[in-house]
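F.,

This is the one I mentioned.
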């Protein structure tokens, strides 16, 4: 067997047993983390309503979001080293865009933290990620329950618009502070003869949702039709 044939055969077999064990563990931990985040989100508005007078939702839930959202950066590494089959560019954009919302918008600005978009984004993210990581974990052991497949390719219909609305509201609430403080911006003149406006960069990112969201949304509908609409329950 040629080396090229061997490489193709290895790819078709998927990750090694050690890599598979690691990926199952990673996805299981993410399911637990995002489940805890959803519990915290619900608790803030129900069980622990008394804390609302003492702290904001972000103060209540921030560390859970920071840890488990930033842990998604590992997914870029998974694709880069070949233990997960996916498009590296798309994975990088998807992961870093969410990290930017958390670290570059909500965490970075006092106005972003109190945006009405925070609970919307966290609700959409947490439910989506519980289902997504659960789907990946079961897929690795070759036994995905059909209800998880159905949830993965159905809940996005409501959750994607909710999540995008929440993210854009966070951006919009944060941009006023960025404009006034000129945070993370570089103005001329300076030694490196370079200028950068974080305020305009945020608006570019916000406007990029216009062409990108419909493509992603319609792609998910196409996937849903392919997987569920065909009656394939494997």
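My design for it:
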């Amino acid at each position: 067997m040629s080396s090229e044939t061997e490489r193709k055969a290895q790819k078709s077999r998927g990750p090694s047993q050690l890599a598979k064990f690691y990926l199952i563990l990673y996805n299981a931990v993410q399911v637990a983390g995002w489940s805890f985040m959803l519990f915290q989100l619900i608790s803030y508005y129900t069980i622990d309503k008394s804390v609302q007078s003492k702290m904001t939702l972000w103060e209540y839930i921030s560390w859970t979001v920071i840890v488990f959202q930033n842990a998604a950066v590992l997914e870029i590494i998974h694709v880069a080293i070949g233990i997960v089959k996916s498009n590296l560019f798309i994975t990088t954009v998807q992961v870093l865009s969410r990290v930017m919302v958390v670290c570059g918008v909500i965490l970075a600005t006092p106005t972003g933290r109190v945006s009405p978009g925070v609970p919307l984004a966290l609700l959409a993210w947490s439910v989506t990620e519980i289902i997504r990581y659960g789907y990946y974990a079961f897929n690795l052991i070759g036994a995905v329950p059909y209800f998880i497949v159905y949830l993965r390719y159905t809940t996005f219909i409501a959750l994607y618009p909710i999540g995008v609305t929440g993210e854009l509201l966070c951006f919009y609430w944060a941009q006023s502070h960025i404009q006034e403080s000129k945070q993370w911006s570089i103005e001329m003149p300076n030694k490196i003869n370079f200028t950068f406006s974080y305020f305009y960069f945020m608006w570019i990112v916000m406007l990029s949702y216009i062409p990108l969201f419909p493509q992603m949304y319609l792609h998910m509908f196409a996937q849903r039709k392919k997987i569920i609409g065909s009656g394939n329950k494997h």
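The first helix runs from residue 3 to 13.

Talk soon.
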